[in-house]
Amino acid sequence: MTGIVFDIKRFAIHDGPGIRTSIFFKGCPLSCWWCHNPESKKSDVENLTSKFKGRYFIGWNTTAQELLKEVEKDSAFYKQSNGGITFTGGEPLMQAAFLSESAQLFKSQGFHLCLDTSGYAAPEIFKELSEYFDLFLFDLKLIDDQEHQKYTGVSNKNILKNLEYLVEKNKNIQIRFPLIPNINDQTAQLEKVSHYLSGLHRIKNIDLLPYHKIATGKYEQLKLANKMEKTKEADEEKIENVKLFFEKKGFQVKIGG
Ligand code: SF4
């Protein structure tokens, strides 16, 4: 079986505990306005040309065995730091069969596995795949379904259902909340997120991921419409206030991944 990835980052320290290798799966069914990885959106390998790089590809076909060879290079670092492998993207669950094969192979070698996910997948698929991961970095963007559809292109019904399944099964979950100016940073939206997470009881930590404009150049290069073109990055004070907001509600909050 082959799958498509578009990046492999060694020595990653923000994608789960310890030192990790992050594998970026290509393809995402969401279209978040603020996406920092717009090159992940399409699920096939892209052949592009640019005046700076000439002809280049985004993504390549690979196998679980090839990925294993790559991640094994840093086994010693994972052991020393309690790190491991993180599957990210894009949305890794979009290549469910390939993700399943890779995760099972890595698991058989004893690696600690994280899934960095939007949670968007059919609940049956999600349940089956969730067995292989030690930690879920779960993105929660908006609670209101209509707003979720407006800003990400999809409903959040299955996302919330899948998160609730993880809670029910006592899985390790790290919530990641992308803080996006004028989209989910108003008190009303924050209240909804806090209320929802408090109802899940086991969720105590939130990683705040403030919007930044790092991907602007990528949108230009890929000739994609950037709906956030005029949006400014959140200022320090706003970020601190949101941190305080969640802390007052009883959560432990970390800024950044
Ligand atoms: S879920 Fe992540 S990768 Fe997919 S569009 Fe949203 S921000 Fe981008």
Describe this structure in words.
The protein has 257 residues and is an alpha/beta fold. The chain has a single domain (3-255), classed as TIM Barrel, CATH 3.20.20. The chain has helices at 64-72, 75-81, 96-108, 123-130, 145-152, 157-168, 187-199, 216-222, 236-248, and strands at residues 3-12, 20-25, 46-50, 54-58, 60-62, 84-88, 113-117, 135-139, 173-179, 205-210, 252-255. It has a 9-stranded mixed β-sheet with strand order 5-1-2-6-7-8-9-10-11. The chain has a two-stranded antiparallel ribbon with strand order 3-4. Helix 1 crosses helix 3 (96-108) and helix 4 (123-130) runs parallel beside helix 6 (157-168).
Shape label = globular
Rg is: 18 Å
| CATH architectural designation | Alpha-Beta Barrel
Number of separate helices: 9
Order of helices and strands: EEEEEHHEHEHEHHEHEHHE
The strand count comes to: 11
The CATH topology corresponds to: TIM Barrel
Helix amount: 25-40%
Q: Which ligands appear in the coordinates?
A: iron/sulfur cluster
